[in-house]
Amino acid sequence: MDKLRRRVRHGTVKERARILVVGGGYVGMYTALRLQRQLKQELRRGEAEITVVTPDPYMTYQPFLPEAAAGLISPRHVVVPLRRVLPRCHILIGEATAVDHAERTATVTTLATDEEGTGPRQLTYDEIVLAPGSVSRVLPIPGLADYAIGFKTVEEAIGLRNHVIEQMDIASSTRDPAIRDAALTFVFVGGGYAGVEALGELEDMARYAARYYHNVRPEDMKWILVEASDRILPEVGEAMGRYTVTELRRRNIQVLLGTRLESCADRVAVLSDGKRFPTRTVVWTAGVKPHPVLAATDLPLDGRGRLKCTPELTVDGATHAWAAGDAAAVPDVTAAEPGKQTAPNAQHAVRQAKVLADNIARSLRGEPPLTYSHRYVGSVASLGLHKGVAHVYGRKLKGYPAWLMHRAYHLSRVPTVNRKARVLAEWTLSGLFKREIVSLGSLEHPRAEFELAAGGKPSDDPKGSS
Q: Which parts of the sequence belong to the FAD/NAD(P)-binding domain (predicted)?
């Protein structure tokens, strides 16, 4: 009998195949998107259902975060609303906190959990896709949790933009040289994509914004990139990495290789080489780690805390469990050396999601699975407006051609025609008109003005709660 029509588990008959997708990022969204196409008829007949559990009602296209921080793209165009692109799926806004795959149950907290007072929900499933992504890898550095800013979400990107412009306002209005120097010193920790692209775009934006300040010049600002290894942007190759260092230093950006952040307590960045920088801005982009929910499962993990997977994207040794992206250690079948795994980046995540969805559909229909195979084609990175580096199909590009390739590639990859058109329109308008340099930091505290009017003291809580 067709597996979609009759599924037996623990002695009970299941009338439909219940597919649970944990995570609404690259893998989660693209898997659900392809599944609702592959299982279109089954979903219509009620023989299958797809539930997506995600903390946010949108997927963030992270390669556009630096441009959103620089004001070149509107924040709402960097995200894709899941309810719009996944109309045949049930979207549940919440967090999966544990998975008991032996019992086929997931523990989920939702926005209503505290209000209900009944505790987390238990969701049952037949097939599970674990794609919770990753979280920032924060080290026990003094002051880091108190003062640093991350760069993984659109909220962090816009918050950082507001913060940088606010620091320029502080420097412009203060009479204290020490406060001015700290306000105009920006320290970025981490020489990967996130750190280099965020630094390049924000320095470019701040340099442009300085023309509108009567007493702040570009040369007054200190931009510092701290990287623990001896190179940056390893994905674009050693030669392009060296070019990037040279290009950044030409813009008076200090690139400190082989250096670690030892402390940022009391708003002073102390580095391993002994340098000290009084600063009000420390941006932490020094790596990520697997989502904590993976440790709260009964599924096998590798030494880095990721799920052990097969080339078919099933969890090794566990039936009906699937994973891809940052959460998964997937063997690279195209690699010459044995034991190598695919890189945890968007290029693989999007392609893995398609194979994963196809394999779930094939499994439900009793068909053999496909093997994930993709040879890495290269990388592109933006260093600011009209500046970039690229290493694609063995060809190395830099400057304007690389920047143009960066934009063309990511425009082709951002989901939905709607978002492509909006991003392209904003790029066109930004080329015709001057860049926006307004800080809207008050959006982070929307009730502050009302609390003052009511005779109270503004709360630090963004929701305005006391």
A: 18-353
